């Protein structure tokens, strides 16, 4: 065993032992072993390592330490994404790991992910633990909620987004307007290289803002620009090794100073901004004509004020708005930024998109949602961008709501489950040459758009992305509007463009780059 591995192992052992001593738990807390589980009794886990390296009978009362020398490795922060895929090779699509002291079940490949999220949708609909975010949000807000709270917030949010225009013509017009503002911002660069992050995030941030705050912000608005920077930094911090350490050893990390604590400051800025908007809405609320998500929530709060069990209170309002704004901005922005980068790397793909836009939309009107069905190539390119960029490779953790039989295993109630969406999006049984960017993955032999059921960028089942419809419309309209007006060219040789994400772990964020937008 190499020396580096031994040192790392000793550090972790020391860390976890000190934490364990305080909490009185096993001295092996935090050590990461790879275990395969089989059903025994509903609450018992049995390890079934190959007998040569691990005794399977009698089963150990709790997972013991597997020495590195046996060829196993630690589930170390930088491995978060690739490690499950390596383990899948060895243990198959269902296995469990210890993430610090926490045992999580990992599902890899389209079949296992779909079976859990769709065929056993109800049982797998719990939200799993995410210590970094749980520390801040404490289970409030729609993304992190569970039980009755989640049901009520989800139902309310879906209905409200719909009533405020999601899927309707009015929202389409809003997005088209923002896309045009973005085109004008880009035009100001006069073909010189620029970093697209801010203008792109601004455009999509304005779309979700108009839904939750009933307002859009000028491209020069300093408060909004700060907010967008905060969101981007938040995403970066969430992928940092420090945060990933926090995910594994929250009991220790919460007492240590370090960059992982910056997340609290970022969220505070967002929280303060939303709180101020809520207070502003409270003062000017007209219950007869809600203007946005906040107004609709305030009206619901008023209706339910006699109900002590109601989930409609200020905390859930503020944090749900933070969640919608956070998810609605950076997820869409990161996908678009990856898309533009890929089109610079593959100019032949960009050329075909240009041809299709010219043929279907022309140059004299803005693209509309109805054009999508007549633009199979562009539709396929957008799907391939999402598949390839794989923004949320591990999904957001789920948890089983009760003891659940799954593929011959028993998952005890409350077990955290990682449905590795990236393993479906890069599943070689569903996508040819999955590591390569190839829009052909979504085209049939006649050039028509071809659905692929392993496309799970928005996840699936009861927790499926709440903003999927909005995001799809934004991706199509913003992408086509920009390409209708510009050819995107890289200031460096396309062959030298590096597609490696800037940060990876729970999210894949595109690397920083500059683009020249040449008017067409
Ligand atoms: C390209 C853009 C987007 C992608 C790839 C994406 C992807 C996802 C994924 C993978 C999940 C996890 C689902 C699960 O737990 O299994 C999720 C959840 C969620 N997304 Fe998105 N999302 C995007 C855009 C948006 C937008 C625009 C909004 C805002 C309206 C949004 C709001 C949410 C919310 C609130 C949840 C939590 C749902 C729940 O827990 O019930 N997302 N998203």
UniProtKB/TrEMBL annotation:
Binding site residues for heme: 465
Gene3D superfamilies for the chain: Cytochrome P450
PROSITE patterns registered for this protein in UniProt: CYTOCHROME_P450
GO biological process, one term: xenobiotic metabolic process
Locations listed in the record: Endoplasmic reticulum membrane; Microsome membrane
UniProt membrane topology term: Peripheral membrane protein
Family matches, as SUPFAM superfamilies: Cytochrome P450
Cofactor(s), names only, from the UniProt record: heme
One MF term in the entry's GO annotations: arachidonate epoxygenase activity
UniProt main location, coarse: endoplasmic reticulum
Any one of the GO CC terms: endoplasmic reticulum membrane
Record keywords, A-Z: Endoplasmic reticulum, Heme, Iron, Membrane, Metal-binding, Microsome, Monooxygenase, Oxidoreductase
Keyword Plastid: no
The UniProt record lists the keyword Metal-binding: yes
Similarity section: Belongs to the cytochrome P450 family.
PANTHER family (UniProt xref): CYTOCHROME P450, CYTOCHROME P450 508A4-RELATED
Protein name: Cytochrome P450 2G1
Gene behind the chain: LOC115642992
């Amino acid at each position: 065993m190499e020396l580096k591995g031994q040192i790392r192992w000793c550090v972790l052992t020391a860390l976890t032992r000190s934490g364990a001593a305080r909490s009185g738990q096993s001295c092996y807390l935090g050590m990461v072993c790879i275990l395969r589980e089989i059903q025994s009794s509903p609450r018992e886990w049995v390890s079934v390592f190959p007998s040569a390296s691990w005794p399977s009978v009698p089963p150990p009362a709790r997972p013991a330490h597997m020495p590195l020398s046996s060829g196993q490795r630690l589930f170390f922060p930088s491995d978060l994404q690739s490690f499950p895929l390596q383990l899948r090779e060895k243990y198959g699509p269902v296995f469990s790991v210890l993430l610090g002291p926490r045992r999580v079940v990992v599902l890899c490949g389209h079949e296992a992910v779909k079976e859990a999220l769709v065929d056993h949708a109800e049982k797998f609909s719990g939200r799993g633990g995410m210590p970094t975010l749980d520390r801040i949000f404490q289970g409030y807000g729609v993304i992190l909620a569970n039980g009755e709270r989640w049901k009520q917030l989800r139902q309310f949010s879906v209905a409200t987004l719909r009533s405020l225009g999601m899927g309707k013509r009015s929202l389409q017009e809003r997005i088209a307007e923002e896309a045009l503002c973005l085109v004008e911002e880009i035009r100001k660069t006069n073909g010189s290289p620029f970093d697209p992050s801010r203008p792109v995030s601004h455009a999509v941030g304005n779309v979700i803002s108009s839904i939750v705050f009933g307002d859009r912000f000028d491209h020069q608005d300093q408060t909004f620009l700060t907010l967008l920077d905060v969101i981007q930094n938040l995403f970066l911090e969430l992928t940092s090794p420090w945060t990933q350490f926090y995910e594994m050893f929250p009991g220790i990390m919460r007492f240590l100073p370090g960059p992982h604590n910056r997340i609290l400051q970022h969220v505070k800025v967002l929280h303060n901004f939303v709180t101020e908007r809520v207070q502003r809405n409270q003062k000017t609320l007209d219950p007869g004509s809600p203007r946005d998500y906040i107004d609709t929530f305030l009206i619901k709060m008023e209706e339910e004020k006699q109900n002590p069990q109601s989930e409609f209170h200020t905390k859930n309002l503020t944090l749900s708005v933070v969640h919608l704004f956070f998810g609605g901005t950076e997820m869409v922005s990161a996908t678009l930024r990856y898309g533009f980068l890929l089109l610079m790397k593959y100019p032949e793909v960009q050329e075909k998109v240009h041809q299709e836009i010219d043929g279907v939309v022309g140059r004299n009107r803005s693209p509309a949602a109805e054009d999508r069905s007549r633009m199979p190539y562009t539709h396929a390119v957008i799907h391939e961008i999402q598949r390839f960029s794989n923004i949320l490779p591990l999904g957001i953790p789920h948890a089983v709501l009760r003891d659940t039989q799954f593929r011959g295993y028993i998952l005890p109630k409350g077990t955290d489950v990682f449905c590795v969406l990236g393993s479906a999006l890069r599943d070689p049984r569903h996508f040819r040459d999955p590591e390569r960017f190839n829009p052909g993955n979504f085209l049939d032999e006649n050039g028509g758009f071809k659905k692929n059921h392993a496309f799970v960028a928005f996840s699936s089942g009861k927790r499926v992305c709440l903003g999927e419809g909005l995001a799809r419309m934004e991706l199509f309209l913003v992408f086509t509007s920009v390409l209708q007006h510009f050819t995107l060219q890289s200031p460096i040789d396309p062959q030298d463009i590096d597609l490696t994400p800037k940060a990876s772990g729970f999210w894949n964020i595109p690397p920083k780059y500059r683009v020249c937008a040449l008017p067409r």
